[in-house]
Design goal:
It is built from four helices and twelve strands, in the order ββββαβββαααβββββ. By secondary structure, it is an alpha+beta fold. The protein is globular.
């Protein structure tokens, strides 16, 4: 699933992109809309992700985040058949692909609270399936090896699972600065570690550094996320 650049390759320029985290209150907790990418795709084939895609040149906005907001709304319609006003999307997080990856993205994640049970329509080409699933269940299935989740989706679902309702989740997101994830990657034979800002080993790219952890570990193709740092309050 992960495609690393060759040692002599130039560092790829990140492609602006955007994602909508569509959530709703369910009987057993917050449910999120996940779409399955076609297993034949070169990038994240078979993975379950939130609706999203690359920012187009004609996506409106004064900066990358605002263009991403409009791209997210457009991609939500194109991939899932759902309509949302870009102005109602709340900035959730920003992910920048590590420099060692062959294909890189600068992806803005936006949160949207959904009412009711809207009809989901996938194209059957790039996206082959959809499902509403509680964040807790998605994480359980990932740990069991039954649900392929890339790190940004995994980390976002863990964040969602810490909240009891969509209103509570929105309040948390509105009160913090959107976290920025720009991983530094440490590779070993059977394990890979993505270090994020705030981790004691982030600046040195050394996962053995003592102190608080903020990282994702990959063992046998499965991801585990650890965060021992607080989010930055908005305006701090």
């Amino acid at each position: 699933m992960l495609k690393f650049a060759n040692e002599n390759d130039e560092v790829a320029t990140p492609k602006p992109s955007a994602t909508v985290i569509a959530v709703r209150d369910g009987q057993d907790g917050i449910e999120a809309l996940l779409l399955q990418r076609n297993p034949e795709l070169a990038v994240m084939g078979g993975a379950w992700v939130f609706p999203g895609g690359k920012v187009d040149p004609d996506d409106f906005g004064s900066d990358e985040m605002e263009r991403g907001r409009h791209a997210a709304a457009r991609e939500l319609f194109e991939e899932a058949g759902l309509t949302v006003s870009a102005d109602t999307l709340t900035t959730f997080s920003h992910w920048l692909t590590p420099v060692i990856m062959k294909v890189r993205f600068s992806t803005w994640f936006f949160l949207w609270g959904v009412e009711g049970n809207p009809t989901i329509q996938v194209d059957g080409s790039e996206i082959v399936a959809s499902r509403w699933i509680t964040a807790a269940e998605a994480l359980d299935q990932h740990r069991a090896g039954d649900l392929q989740l890339p790190p940004p989706t995994l980390v976002s679902l863990i964040d969602i699972a810490e909240h009891a309702s969509v209103d509570e989740l929105h309040a948390t997101v509105a009160g913090r600065e959107p976290p920025m994830f720009f991983p530094k990657v440490f590779r070993q034979e059977q394990q890979m570690t993505f270090l994020y800002a705030g981790d004691a080993g982030y600046e040195s790219a050394d996962p053995s550094a003592e102190g608080p952890q903020h990282r994702t570990r990959i063992v046998d193709g499965r991801f585990s996320y650890y965060r021992e740092i607080p989010w930055t309050p908005r305006g701090a």
